[in-house]
Amino acid sequence: MDRQRIVDAFVGRLGFLTAFRKRPNRAAVPIRIYVAKGHGSSSITRLITAGLRAGGLRACGKTSTTSPRLLFPDGREYPVYRPSNANLREQRRVTRVAEQERADVLVLEGIATKDDGQLSAGLQAELQALNATHVVLANGLPQQTDARDKVVSRLAAVVADRGKLFAAVTGVDETEFLAVIDDEQIADVRWVEMERFSYIEYREHVAIALRVCEELGVDRETALSGMWRANPDPGVATVFQASSPSASTDCGVTFVNGFAVSDPARLRRSWEIAAGRFRNRPRLAIVNCRADRPECWRRLADSLAKWTPADHYLIIGTAATLFAQRLQSLGIDRDRISCTRVESADRIGILARRLGGEAALVLGIGSMSGATWGLVNYFRKREARTLQNAA
Q1: How many angstroms separate the CA atoms of 60 and 88, rounded?
Q2: Crossing angle of the two packed helices 145-158 and 121-130, in degrees rounded to 10
Q3: Who's near 34: CB < 8 A, 6+ residues apart?
Q4: Residue 323 has pLDDT above 90, yes or no
Q5: Where among 229, 262, 278 does a domain terminate?
Q6: 61 beta partners
Q7: Does one domain contain both 123 and 70?
Q8: Contact yes or no for 208/168 (Cβ under 8 A)
Q9: pTM score
Q10: Cα–Cα distance for residue pair 111/68, rounded to 1 Å
Q11: For residue 65, is it left (φ>0), alpha (ψ between -120 and 50) or beta?
Q12: What percent of the chain has pLDDT over 70?
């Protein structure tokens, strides 16, 4: 009996996928771009959608990780209601919305994963259901020739006729099906272009999105203009440029909000990018630590000690003293560490200015709790004041 139920469920799922694939609403959206789930896939989805929209295409998009969002052609976005785990029904609803919006393009971030260079059954099912015309592999392709060829051939079998695959990989020749984004193309994305983003974005994400936009007839400058205006994905490090009350300096504090970024590896990369983007600035790290999450702040301290060093570290939160002690044990000079039990965001902001100076690069990391909510608003308000004064 159990065996029969399994067979019935399997046959039923095959029937669902077949029916889904034959529905006409995918044909009503002529360009269907599938961004495989991976590191940075949500940002890439947003960048492609914004770039194509700037080029005059009616582009819908949908992000699936962090906090799923549906992106509309007019720039609006709404959270995706998800009563349970992400599934193909969710992707089907998004396709219907794109049809109702009379979209030219749907940029859909996947919900299935690709591990160890192998395409999962779920990923292949998504591609078949969407009947994708373009596929973007956020994590690139395997370097081993056999594994890479296997992935490419499997994708070619499930992508629509005359489709295209985009992947960041080095030492691989392009084909009619495979578009390669190599180190040279990534290096072509200049720092001056990256500085126009209101958050910390990665050059390889921009390079991939630009290549997709170029393939679809949108030139580089137009695509970039749209990407610069795009809303950042929740969970990325945003940048606020606060005004300086001093007449002796023409720039104020640059605050990078990394409180929402939980992964130490991503935090480190955001810090290194910010340090390169805002060169020759005094660097201050504000770290919020919670005593009830010892594993989190210990892991963060161990990672922080390996980063490009800050000129000063301001530690706040209920585990501030313990975190400072751990930093000292990892070789950071005690004179460069300050702890405070102050819970007022304004007072912490003033203290940060005093420690870092009026032109400092300030990175906020750690737990998004307590005073950090107010601290982000402290710098956001001062950025708004800066923009008003400039206008």
Answers
A1: 18
A2: 40
A3: 108, 110, 126, 127, 130, 132, 134, 135, 136
A4: yes
A5: 229
A6: 71, 107
A7: yes
A8: yes
A9: 0.79
A10: 10
A11: beta
A12: 87
